[in-house]
Amino acid sequence: MLGSFYKVNGLTMDLGGGSCELSYVTSNNLASSPLSSPRPAKRLKTSSSPVSLPYGAAILRKRLLKCDDHPKRKKKLYQEIIDQVTIAKSTTNIPGHLKDHDGYTLYMSGGGFRALGYLSMAFTNHTSVSNHQVKTQKKMTYPIPIISGYSMTGDELIKLVDQFKDRDPEDLVNELKVFRISKRRTRMIPATCFLVSAIMKVIKIKQIYFSEGGARQGICYHMLPVSEQLKDPLLEGVKSHVSHLPHALSKTDFDTVFKVLKDAIPPLYLSPDHPLQLHRLIPAALHLANLTTHYPKETRAFVAFHMPLASGPLANIPGLLHSERAILALILAYRQGGEVPDPAFNAIEDMIGKYGVAVCKYVGRLMEIIFLISPRQPGLALLESGIQFKLIRPESSDEEDYSISPPVTPNSQQFYSASTLQIIFPSKHSFMLEAPAVISVIETMDKKIQPKKFELDQEIQGLDSKVKLFSVSIVRS
């Protein structure tokens, strides 16, 4: 589990056939800075007294079968689980800083719990929206069918378990045909939901994350040197993937382009506690940015978009939540022009929200310009071309061009603000910048990073028609 996520900070539960384990995991220095710290610089701390509850999926299913036609027995079993979980919660000695006013973060592993994740995916549908504001009747399946990194809210989990905890197992076998849930596992869904329902009567959960890793992966993780454990699994996996490829960036090119990107992106979005996690995803995107440049033009964005998704070569990369896979996919797609003829593209954008998409579009289009100047040696070309990117933050909200509407959610305002970018051409002639293809992309960037007209329908998106997170202006010396 520890190797599956960038940061792990919450309760852990592992459900097997015979038992359910309750513990927690956190870093030693997290109490003072639970959100903004980078990956912990110390070994992660777990409970010294984890509890094993005798309520594995198989055992609990057998006990529930004995309660058929005996509602009082079933109610008594439910109360028994609640009592045992209450004791286990106390025995585990959960640190106080792991809980906020909304409850705990919970990391689930084990086949029984993962089945709930796949079940949640099956009931999470996305509606594709066309360019003419017409919603298609066809419902899309969840676009990232990978269990590791999948998440759901506590309220969503409660709704799910309440729907299935009292169902007949054999009826579910005939009704449910869900990806990655076998008939054997389907028969255990009511028992698993029964257990989770009782657990959530005792422990308030705000967010659930599903982990593919289990005991074997944990043993392998702890066999690694501490220096390896502290590395970001995403960046290490990406660097390993590109290391042998001819279109990978050299260290010099990477460092040069990364510095330019950092200077052209508002610092707000590079903060470690920003929900978009660009401080990790931009370096990863930069390593991958040139890998599809040699593809046919109409397939570049399509292939780049799918790289971190279930159909791409980075599907097995750890350290990514589903929202982060979606953000990385969008940045890579917009770096290659953003034309992706795939209904999943809309579903991925829906996962991130309109403000998040606007940031991904800005970063991707900025990378498109940088790499278009010289795809083979972008770092050297940037220096030789003399082009500059200057970020300007408006001083006053009186400038209507830079105003944004109230955020969609109350908590999002602190994460998004308006900015403008100046692209400054050098006074000295540069043949790299005067190429028609380069000029065209630079001059149309401001237009391309704005929401399309059909996206601004207030009834669909709830956004003000003047929403404008980013603006781009061109300055010629």
UniProtKB/TrEMBL annotation:
Species of provenance: Helicostylum pulchrum
InterPro entries: ATPase_NBD, GppA/Ppx_hydrolase, Ppx_GppA_N, RTG2_C
Name listed for the protein in its UniProt record: Ppx/GppA phosphatase domain-containing protein
Classification via PANTHER family: EXOPOLYPHOSPHATASE, RETROGRADE REGULATION PROTEIN 2
Lineage start: Eukaryota, Fungi, Fungi incertae sedis, Mucoromycota, Mucoromycotina
All copies of domain Ppx/GppA phosphatase N-terminal, residue ranges: 7-225
Pfam family, one: Ppx-GppA
RTG2 C-terminal domain ranges (all copies): 254-370
